[in-house]
Design goal:
Strand content: 5-15%
Number of domains: 3
Number of helices: 5
Distance between the termini: 53 Å
Helix content: 25-40%
Shape: elongated
Strand order of the largest sheet: 3-4-5
Radius of gyration: 24 Å
Largest sheet: 3 strands, antiparallel
Order of helices and strands: HEEEEEHHHH
């Protein structure tokens, strides 16, 4: 039955503030006492990752967990990939970040070449975004303005 003006308001549960910032003693993340971080769940503490290697996470409780929750890069490269770490460090020594709306780097051009070669030269140009969230609104106008070869 649909609610009416005479229906009593729904009871909204009040989150226990002790659950939002639980007391943690002896943690390995450098925080002692009351937690300052608001976790995704207000009633349970998340599992604490102390180390990761390849596709596995090592938890503070001693468990080793296959990481099926990671993004595409970690899924295909794994955690702690030395080749990736070295490349990140090398690029960071040159330039750790610059806004792509205003600047570019030689690395961006090399990445574009790699992407194009990886498609067997089916692509001609590459637009680099910082995330999938920013790529879709950017790609929509491009699909309307750039003629397709297909």
């Amino acid at each position: 039955m649909a609610p009416s003006a005479t229906t009593e308001p729904a009871v909204v549960p009040i989150v226990d503030p002790t659950n939002v910032a639980k007391q943690l003693n002896g943690t390995t993340n450098g925080s002692e006492g009351r937690r300052r971080l608001i976790d995704r769940s207000l009633s349970e503490l998340p599992l604490t990752v102390t180390d990761s290697n390849g596709n596995y996470l090592h938890l503070s409780n001693g468990q080793k967990v296959f990481d099926a929750s990671c993004g595409a890069a970690v899924a295909c490269l794994g955690h702690g990939n030395q080749e990736v770490n070295d490349a990140i460090q090398e690029q960071s020594d040159i330039n750790s970040y610059c806004n792509s709306m205003l600047f570019t780097t030689p690395t961006n051009g090399k990445l574009a070449e790699e992407v194009i070669l990886g498609t067997g030269n089916l692509m001609e140009r590459v637009y680099i975004c910082s995330s999938g969230k920013s790529s879709f609104p950017s790609s929509s106008p491009l699909t309307l303005t750039i003629p397709s070869r297909f």
